[in-house]
Amino acid sequence: MSAVTVSDEQAVSTKPKVIQPAWVRALHWTNAVAMVLMIMSGWQIYNASPLFGFTFPRSITLGGWLAGGLLWHFAAMWLLMVNGLIYLVLGFVTGRFRRKLLPITPEGVISDTKAALTGKLSHDDLSKYNYVQKLLYAGIIVVGILIVLSGLAIWKPVQLQYLAALFGGYEGARYVHFFCMAAIVAFMVVHVALALLVPKSLRAMIIGR
Amino acid sequence: MARMRKLLIPGVDKTLLVRDAIKTMPDLTRRRFITGGASLGALTLLTGCDVTDSFSAEEMLKQVSKFNDGVQALIFNPNAMAPTFPESAITKPFPFNAYYDLDEAPEVDGKTWKLEVRGLVENKKSWTLDELYQLPQVKQVTRHICVEGWSAIGSWTGTPLRDFLKLIGADTRAKYVWFQCADKDGYNSPLDMPTALHAQTQMTFKFGDEILPRAYGFPMKIRVPTKLGFKNPKYVISMEVTNDYKGGFWEDQGYNSFSGS
After folding, report:
1. pLDDT value, residue A121
2. Which segments of chain B have a pLDDT < 70?
3. Per-position DSSP letters for B177-189, written without gaps between them
4. Bridge partner list, B203
5. A19: distance to nearest CA of chain B, Å?
6. What domains, with CATH codes, occur in chain A?
7. Strands B114-119, B236-242: pairing kind
8. Span A40-54, average pLDDT
9. Could you give the ipTM of this predicted complex?
10. Residue of chain A with shortest Cα separation from B29
11. Residues facing B153 on adjacent strands
12. Interface test with B, best of A71, A82, A171 (most B CBs within 10 A)
């Protein structure tokens, strides 16, 4: 855990600055695995009773058929939830969320969006997020919480009926769950594309520096 | 089939229903997910392990599913009632759903049908439909949720199962009430005792104030609004109070056994 304390300090010694502390990296990649399992098995489950006029190609679904998809979904959910809870607790306790994600100002987001679109946004300091990153990373955490809560509401619409009611009941929770998935997939597309465009950010998430 | 289509609700994939039906056959295609799953599971969850060793993702998933049975039994609150709805909320037409077409659904003769009672009960007498119709009945308008994801609101009327269990002197410390059905493939399903004793768990004789039609399980269905639809057996012919886990038609194929909602 010593990495936590050095993580965002300005480089004090000859040691190279740690951009992503070990706990962030471990939780990030565990989350990546859990998310992929949840999304692919979730598509399998979606296909059994589609909300919209399309289904996901069989080749990108997990589980082979509905029961297999459900088994994967209800196994990977533990990985996702436990990992996510640890992340939230550590994010608050270490102050990482406050340091990295706040403040988020509309002016900052607008000017950084303009800068990004005109190719003027700098990536010199990977330990500092720009306003667009702050907004997206904070937003995806909220979406992550929502997808777990709406998933719990779908799983337990009687035992957790007050939670389900917050989403407009069982059927409402299905739609919220779907749109959260869509948001996460959209995030992942941008996130992975940008990580590949700025390889040193990917390196930082693997080896820390 | 045209009649079938009318009875299905929008959003339910018909081809999938048929595919589900095919999947009930004991062939190897259903098991393919295991092969696909084993390699992916080994690669993703156990990075670093030898993918070709004997580790089976299927076994791991089964264990987690059993664990999930335990978790669900723990969070099951016997006093939590499934939300009820006004009659105006009833889904019309209420979908017929099974792994067979409606014209292949069991046709039970109500005059000769008897409910067989077995296992840990004091009175093992079989019950005719007329005798069962004499028991006090209550109506519920609740949401039926299918394991596939769709849901529909229906009106079911019948005798609370717990009243019947009391009447026949069932040992309610037993673990399960196991139901068998008239389906030619022998549909069956176990119900855990706490759920069997839930106030809304019902031996259903009527749907929408009419004698239960063939589509919805004549002569008797077990309505369990705290469980997914496949744990609401139709065309019931016997019930057994038992401590043994006897498996179930869908449960044996991989659907989570508790499947509580």
Report:
1. 79
2. 1-55
3. EEEEE--TT--EE
4. B159, B222
5. 25
6. 17-121+134-207 (1.20.950.20)
7. parallel
8. 97
9. 0.87
10. A64
11. B143
12. A71
